[in-house]
């Protein structure tokens, strides 16, 4: 079930100053060859904004014909392999590669000593991650050496012959061991810009937020609840493992074909380590099999390039599933403490919280995750008096960084559990309590920033509660025998309904959109319009990574809408065009979509200028009317056709390229946390319905209904897919997904046998109610949609399980032993 509420109108996009290809000089007028007709008023290009055209990659993917990065092949390529540390923290005493080099078929073995440039580390913000370990390893699975061989099995066997002697060191595995007086320093001598602002070198970044007077507000509170919560380490679990191919070039550079989320960020990190200028490293996006944040950091990019440059041969690296768990960052596990106060009539008085994120061995995106966790820690509620502290630790656990929801997921789980506690203490309906405190447009966040676009928190709660509930005892059948697939435990046949209790729970969340805290968030687009086979065709070229989210579909929709054409080609993403930023933070449709819209507008202006120069003498409307491009024609706003695009263009293409930025943000104050930190916010609410076998602790989620405001559904079908996908990842965190790390900081379940993700049998019905309340600051009024449903789905499921069992359940994922307290 999908419902859509549309606004009366969509605001125009704010356009930055143009810097496009100049229009051609005026020429002798040429009479149009096609007789002008009249178009129906409001006619739009088929497959434009607001439609749901077929994804160009969709059929290929579902039929297994799509070429992913792991499918690449070069006839003379070598295979790369990585030797990784079996220890979480150890000194490298000695390293002997002689036996590996002697193996037939091996072309090279590289260690830290073979790195060609002075720069040996890389990182998104803090360059603290070694290309290859030197002196010591800081986490289980850290890369130590590389092998290139003529067969992948030869490379693996050679890597196993590298002899490394380790001396194990004390492990830093939690806050206590990280901040102890005698704690080993993971990065002694830090000189990054966060180092001087943290109270201990093992703290990556710390962000306090103070607003109002929490002490005075607490004194006024008639009810105060506190809680301690914990979120486990979740993996992005993308199905396409890390892979890529590096091909050495005749100019001494390298061509890299890679599955990534951010080509230009990769390039910025790769070039200094290879000792090459950026223009000698040409990057092209290969087929990406999912990302969810896990491809924002480098994995094997530098390794493949090093091996290719040393051997002079193309080198392909493909991780298997086991190695993939060590090859990318994960969601930060977190421990959270919260205190909320309220009056007896159900109004929040204050909030205090402390959020401790485990960043693992290297910084990755931890500073930005801390900023998100802190600034969004109060949730979508009106709370004037707050004291907030969020920090990320360096430990010897696996590195953690970007994952869908980016710090807001952990906070949402805790503050929504608190809302249910308060509602119970006040004997109020949990939805009504949330609605009494729901923010709206104009509400000031704890950072002091006012929400200046629609914030329909109370409305999406109302809508999700109003949806029909699934029928009771869904396992009952007309024949009498239960359908055990609808029961907890499913086909394991653990129950026929005895001991099964239904629970219903609600949650709502707030997520920022786009890069924040003063980051220069922009995208570049290049658009070319020309006649091919007698028909106008637009070519859109950006560096935006298509990772499965449907960006290439939306970019084509925008070009059809703005240029009035049917045929749109999408150029492969590469670094031959300016940066599009990362495919993350729910930003690509907003920012790169904004860039495509803006550059299409520049092209349209050039088309009209050329039309006026060539054909203006044949009709006065060229000089006086508001002109549009629709259905391959130049038309007046009254629908009169002046010329075909093919006539206007002739044999001379029109091309423009420019950058587009959203309005600027600013860094949070390091002492008070105040500042205009985020450009936009998105909101989603969920209702979860579960059946719980209270005797065995098994859970069956039978429905996860969602209501979400998306501003403008650019592609309604894709929007619903994003909401359902994000909801399913939140379900996984709620009841099954966790990377298990033991006290020695070793990963115990690096496989899809032991790390469980929801299958189609686990995924419930997900009805979606889509609101479209335009944000006047955004292109088409759209709002980033991909992450918000990942926030509220997890606490909604936990609220439903609590309702069924009466258990507190302060940790996710919840396991059977938590429910039955074995």
Task: Describe the overall structure.
This is Molybdopterin-dependent oxidoreductase. Residues 63-170 form the Aldehyde oxidase/xanthine dehydrogenase a/b hammerhead domain. Residues 1-12, 22-38 have a biased composition (Low complexity). Pfam families: Ald_Xan_dh_C, MoCoBD_1, MoCoBD_2. With 822 residues, the protein is an alpha+beta fold. Helix content is 24%, strand content 24%. The protein is built from 19 helices and 30 strands. The strands form seven sheets. A seven-stranded mixed sheet has the order 4-8-2-15-12-13-14, with helices on both faces. The protein is globular and about 80 Å long.
**Class of secondary structure makeup:** alpha+beta
- Average pLDDT value? 94
General shape: globular
Q: Would you count the extended β strands for me?
A: 30
Which assembly state applies to the chains in this document?
A: single chain
Radius of gyration over C-alpha positions, nearest whole angstrom: 28 Å
Distance between the termini: 39 Å
Report helical residue fraction: 10-25%
Count the helices. How many?
Answer: 19
- Biggest beta-sheet profile: 7 strands, mixed
Beta-strand level of the residues, as a percent range? 15-25%
How would you write the strand order of the largest sheet? Answer: 4-8-2-15-12-13-14
Low-confidence stretches: 1-36, 40-44
């Amino acid at each position: 079930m999908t419902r859509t509420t549309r606004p009366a109108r969509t605001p125009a996009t704010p356009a930055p100053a143009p810097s496009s290809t100049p229009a051609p000089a005026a020429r002798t007028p040429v009479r149009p060859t096609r007789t002008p007709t009249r178009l129906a008023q409001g006619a739009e290009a088929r497959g434009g904004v607001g439609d749901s055209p077929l994804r160009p990659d969709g059929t290929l993917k579902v039929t297994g014909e799509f070429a992913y990065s792991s499918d690449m092949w070069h006839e003379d390529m070598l295979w790369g392999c990585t030797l990784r540390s079996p220890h979480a923290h150890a000194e490298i005493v000695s390293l002997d590669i002689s036996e590996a080099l002697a193996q037939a078929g091996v072309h090279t073995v590289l260690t830290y000593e073979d790195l060609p440039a002075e720069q040996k580390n890389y990182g998104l913000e803090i360059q603290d991650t070694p290309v290859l370990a030197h002196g010591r390893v800081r986490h289980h699975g850290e890369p130590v050496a590389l092998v290139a061989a003529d067969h992948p099995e030869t490379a693996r066997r050679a890597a196993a012959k590298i002899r490394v002697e380790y001396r194990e060191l004390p492990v830093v595995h939690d806050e206590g061991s990280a901040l102890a007086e005698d704690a080993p320093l993971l990065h002694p001598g830090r000189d990054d810009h966060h180092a001087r602002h943290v109270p201990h070198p093992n703290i990556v970044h710390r962000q306090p937020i103070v607003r109002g007077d929490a002490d005075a507000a607490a004194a006024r509170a008639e009810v105060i609840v506190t809680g301690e919560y914990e979120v486990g380490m979740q993996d992005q679990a993308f199905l396409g493992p890390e892979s890529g191919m590096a091909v050495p070039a005749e100019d001494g550079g390298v061509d890299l074909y890679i599955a990534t989320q951010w080509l230009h960020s990769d390039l910025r990190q790769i070039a200094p380590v290879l000792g090459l200028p950026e223009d000698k490293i040409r990057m092209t996006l290969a087929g990406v099999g999912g990302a969810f944040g896990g491809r924002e950091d480098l994995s094997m990019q530098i390794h493949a390039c090093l091996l290719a440059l040393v051997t002079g041969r193309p080198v392909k690296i493909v991780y298997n599933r086991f190695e993939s768990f060590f090859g990318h960052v994960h969601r930060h596990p977190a421990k959270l403490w919260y205190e909320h106060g309220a009056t007896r009539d159900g109004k929040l008085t204050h909030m205090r919280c402390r959020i401790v994120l485990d960043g693992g061995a290297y910084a990755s995106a931890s500073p930005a995750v801390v900023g998100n966790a802190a600034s969004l820690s109060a949730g979508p509620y009106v709370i004037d008096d707050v004291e907030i502290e969020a920090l990320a630790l360096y430990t010897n656990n696996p590195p953690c960084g970007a994952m869908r929801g980016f710090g807001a997921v952990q906070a949402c789980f805790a503050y929504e559990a608190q809302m249910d506690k308060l509602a119970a203490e006040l004997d109020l309906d949990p939805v009504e309590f949330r609605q009494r405190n729901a923010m709206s447009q104009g509400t000031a966040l704890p950072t002091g920033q006012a929400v200046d676009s629609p914030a329909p928190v109370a409305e999406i709660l109302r809508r999700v509660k109003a949806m029909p509930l699934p029928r009771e005892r869904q396992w009952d059948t007309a024949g009498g025998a239960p359908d055990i697939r609808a029961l907890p435990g499913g086909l394991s046949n653990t129950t026929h309904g005895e001991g099964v209790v239904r629970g219903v729970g609600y949650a709502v969340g707030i997520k920022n959109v786009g890069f924040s805290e003063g980051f220069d968030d922009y995208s570049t687009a290049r658009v070319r319009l020309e006649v091919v086979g007698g028909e106008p065709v637009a070519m859109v070229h950006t560096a935006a990574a298509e990772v499965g989210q449907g960006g290439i579909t939306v970019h084509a929709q925008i070009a059809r809408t703005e240029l009035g054409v049917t045929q749109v080609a999408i150029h492969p993403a590469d670094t031959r065009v300016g940066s599009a930023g990362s495919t993350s933070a729910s930003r690509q449709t907003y920012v790169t979509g904004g860039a495509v819209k803006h550059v299409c507008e520049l092209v349209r202006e050039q088309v009209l200028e050329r039309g006026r120069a060539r054909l203006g003498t044949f009709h006065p409307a060229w000089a006086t009317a508001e002109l549009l491009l629709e259905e391959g024609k130049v038309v007046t706003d009254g629908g009169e056709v002046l010329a075909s695009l093919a006539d206007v263009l002739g044999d001379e293409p029109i091309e423009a390229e420019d950058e587009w930025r959203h309005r600027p943000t600013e860094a949070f104050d390091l002492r008070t946390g105040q500042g205009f930190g985020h450009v936009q916010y998105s909101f989603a609410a969920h209702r979860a319905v579960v059946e719980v076998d209270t005797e065995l602790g098994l859970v069956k989620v039978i429905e996860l209904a969602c209501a979400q405001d998306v501003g403008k559904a650019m592609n309604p079908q894709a929007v619903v897919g994003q909401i359902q996908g994000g909801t399913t990842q939140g379900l996984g965190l709620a009841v099954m997904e966790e990377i298990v790390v033991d006290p020695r900081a070793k990963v115990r379940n690096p496989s899809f046998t032991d790390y469980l993700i929801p299958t189609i049998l686990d995924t419930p019905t997900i009805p979606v109610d889509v609101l479209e309340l335009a944000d006047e600051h955004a292109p088409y009024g759209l709002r980033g949609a991909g992450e918000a449903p990942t926030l509220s789905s997890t606490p909604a499921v936990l609220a439903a399980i609590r309702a069924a069992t009466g258990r507190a359940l302060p940790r996710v994922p919840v396991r059977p032993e938590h429910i039955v307290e074995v």
